[in-house]
Amino acid sequence: MTEPEALYVHLLFGLKDRNLGILEANFAQIVYSGLFALEAQWKLLVEDVELGRVNPDLKIGGDVRRSGKAKKKFFLAHTERYLLLADTFSSEVFPIR
């Protein structure tokens, strides 16, 4: 798995966790890169939240997908969470320019 793909998976799990309260990293650049990736890919991430999946176009190993299926609560469709995230990102965080 490449670094961008790993970051995508981390962002996805972070978005699915409504109790997430802090972003933390050893270096500010890592947080910046994560937020930059979130801005660029929020629509795909939010779609994955809605559908209860990890984007099938990502070239990640089957072990990652299988381990995720073991955590079933993260791989259920979350329409309510999707609606909240889609509304938040489209209107407050990354408004359409």
What does this structure look like?
By secondary structure, the protein is mainly α. The protein has a domain at 1-26 and 39-70. It is 64% helix and 0% strand. It contains four helices and no strands. It has helices spanning 3-16, 28-51, 62-70, 79-93. The longest helix is centred in the middle third of the chain and has 24 residues, at 28-51. 11% of the residues are buried.
Brief write-up:
By secondary structure, this protein is mainly alpha-helical. It is built from four helices and no strands. The chain is globular.
What is the molecular shape?
Answer: globular
Order of helices and strands: HHHH
State the total count of DSSP E strands: 0
What structural class should be given to the helix and strand makeup? mainly alpha
Mean pLDDT: 82
